[in-house]
Design goal:
Blueprint: H1 4-22, H2 27-31, H3 45-53, H4 66-70, E1 80-84, H5 90-97, E2 101-106, H6 109-122, E3 126-130, E4 143-149, H7 156-169, E5 170-181, H8 185-188, H9 202-208, E6 213-226, E7 230-242
Helix pairs in contact: 1-6
The chain binds S-adenosylmethionine.
Length: about 250
């Protein structure tokens, strides 16, 4: 009934729908139990993201984010890295290709399935998990590097919990890398959420990460081409910060 990669994704969604019907639950709940959390920005975030990712190509492309690549010199083989809300795997796969030991998670089973395919095709090894960020354990002092690229689905209260989790899960001396859009992106409209409260400013990030040593926190404009999801002149912000050694 289902064939090829697209067919497999259809099968993932169909199975979730069938299980939902059998258990008299909304499909969204089965795809992820936290999905009806209104703090996630959509009524059914997993369903919404699954539908966005249910396409033959990669919504955000297969090449890694340019800001992340520009920080390659800060990364070293053997480091343990966490890729937060990693989507279809472009950034986690690149990190694995740099020799890092990579864990990655995302809410969308469809995205994670595509990420598995990308890793397989690239000969990269990534430990992928389907998980809502609300459920991620943020194990203390576990990672040398935490990478959060375009995770602006979170409104302020959830964002504060995510940022606290990122700090907690970094080892002392570990590095945090963040890329996002600034409010000026509402004029460019070339990607990102159309919600001002989800966007980052330099002051916001400097305040949120005041407990870290901020190595860089810059707002800038650049043209980016990350699939059809992020395409064109964009108002961006990048942060690099180090967790102090106790
Ligand atoms: C703009 S995409 C960015 C994906 C990836 N970081 C990248 O740069 O290619 C945002 C990602 O957040 C994921 N997401 C949305 N809500 C989430 C949640 N509550 N928990 C975990 N991931 C979530 C989506 O599935 C999507 O993959």
């Amino acid at each position: 009934m289902f064939s090829g990669a697209h067919g497999q994704r259809q099968a993932t969604i169909a199975l979730a729908r069938m299980n939902a019907a059998n258990n008299n639950q909304p499909i969204a709940h089965l795809l992820n139990p936290t999905m009806n959390n209104p703090a996630s920005g959509f009524a059914n975030p997993a369903e919404t993201w699954n539908q966005r990712f249910d396409r033959a190509d990669y919504l955000f492309g297969t090449t890694p984010n340019a800001y992340l690549v520009s920080k390659a010199a800060l990364l070293a083989p053997g480091q343990r890295a966490l890729l937060v809300a990693d989507g279809e795997g472009r950034n986690s796969v690149w990190c694995a290709q740099q020799g890092l030991q990579v864990d990655a998670f995302d809410l969308s089973p469809v995205a994670v399935e595509k990420a598995h395919s990308l890793a397989r095709e690239s000969g990269a090894s990534v430990d992928f998990t389907v998980a809502g960020i609300e459920d991620w354990p943020w194990t203390p002092d576990r990672y040398d590097v935490v990478i959060a690229i375009f995770i602006q689905f979170a409104p302020p209260a959830l964002r504060a919990k995510i940022f606290a989790g990122c700090i907690r899960t970094l080892k002392p001396g570990g590095l945090l890398l963040v890329q996002g859009y600034t409010p000026k992106q509402l004029e460019f409209k070339t990607g990102g959420p159309p919600l001002a409260e989800h966007l980052y400013t330099e002051q916001m990030l400097r305040t949120a990460f005041a407990g870290l040593e901020i190595l860089e926190c810059n707002e800038y404009e650049a043209e980016i081409h990350e699939g059809s999801g992020h395409a064109g002149m964009s108002a961006l912000i990048g942060l690099v910060a180090r967790k102090p050694v106790r």
